[in-house]
Design brief:
Blueprint: H1 2-25, H2 34-70, H3 76-103
Length: 104
């Protein structure tokens, strides 16, 4: 009986100490702790998003050039149209999934 009483008091003391540390570490005077991490994550996300966008544009242009080089000149417009259609359909699927998740 004394074991459970002492364990519950220790757990309560730890919880109140953790709450006090959290309250004292987040101040109103600037970025501290979790705030800095939050902005760091968003900065990394933005950087990676811009790199992905740049890579996507460069891939699209390179694929268009490859079609122009590898395909006979008579068939280039057909292959370009099919490639563009595939890109548009892929974007449509991605956007619809994104909108569904945002709506949940």
């Amino acid at each position: 009986m004394t074991d459970t009483e002492s364990e519950s008091t220790i757990d309560t003391d730890r919880a109140s100490t953790d709450d006090q540390r959290t309250a004292s570490s987040t101040g109103e005077d600037g970025l501290i702790g979790e705030d800095a991490t939050y902005y760091l994550y968003w900065g990394a996300f933005t950087t990676l998003l811009l790199l992905a966008l740049l890579s996507t544009v460069r891939f699209y242009l390179s694929a268009s050039n490859a079609i122009g080089i590898w395909v006979a000149p008579d068939f280039v417009p057909v292959f370009q149209a099919v490639f563009n259609l595939a890109v548009v359909l892929g974007c449509g699927v991605g956007l619809s999934l994104l909108v569904r998740r945002m709506g949940e």
